[in-house]
């Protein structure tokens, strides 16, 4: 006779009856044992907040009896997986910048897989992954991918050994603290805010063939959480008063320029570092006191990461020309000052490990992750476009587009 109390049932998340139990599982999974540092996420009572802004999303829970023992979130979007030459010469104009056009695929993303510590090694994680993949296939996704820390052996083993995923990309998460004083932006750079419509045109024109570029970029840039898109140009080329508009800029851009957009993650969830010793807390507090007292010395200070803190995420970083790295650095300084005004503790971004512009992105090594790990899996037999073939076997590009809706 089967003991029904031990039967694992996977079903769709119900906010009315599951919210508190899901939060309890989240807390049990994210607080590390033996006083090790761990990262706790406060989702403000909305367990699907991290996928809510995606075009299509789902959250599943695993239940044994009346107890929720695991959960998983997934979302689907259409992104660039490659590029090819256009056969139409009319494509070679301002709308596409080059004669290369993007090849799109429907991509699914897995995040937030959690299993209660007391119910691990029972196949619950595998069952959740299988169920969310079934939903992906039903909704036409061709590929599925997930992200995890490179040293998270349990997660890597589950996805690569049992779920059929392969290691795909190793981008870098770059995190910089927000100091108690403003950063001086280079006087040789002018920062021009773009309207959402201008930003859409610029990104489609210059970055639509970038790997993982979302086809619905307009939905991203016009989302209420997207604070704005900012263009850096050499001083003297343009000013906010003499800005001629995006079309004229594209017809004759300056010799160097850069762009980035800012996403207000603080409105979605906050983070908190737990498990730090009293010594580490005291050192961090001392650094902040000195930084506030002596701001002209630019002393490195550690923000209060041991209390819930918000952050801004920088996305869509790109640029052209010999000074583009310096332009990105200026934009990062501008974004830092914006985060300071809005009460954020850190500014973060994620870029390809070989991204040329990363040298202009200020970050602290102790807060950053040099190698995040993305694993990918083909969900269907056929290819959406034969000129790409199997995307899982493609060579890494210099740049990727990290969608802020999935952080």
From TrEMBL:
Gene Ontology terms for molecular function: acyltransferase activity, transferring groups other than amino-acyl groups
Superkingdom per UniProt: Eukaryota
CDD domains, per the entry: NAT_SF
Keywords, sorted A to Z: Acyltransferase, Transferase
Database matches in InterPro entries: Acyl_CoA_acyltransferase, GNAT_dom, Plant_NAT
Residue span(s) of domain N-acetyltransferase: 8-184
Pfam families the record matches: Acetyltransf_1
Transmembrane segments: none
Similarity comment text for this entry: Belongs to the acetyltransferase family.
Stated name of the protein: Probable N-acetyltransferase HLS1 isoform X1
Species of the source: Cicer arietinum
Gene: LOC101496495
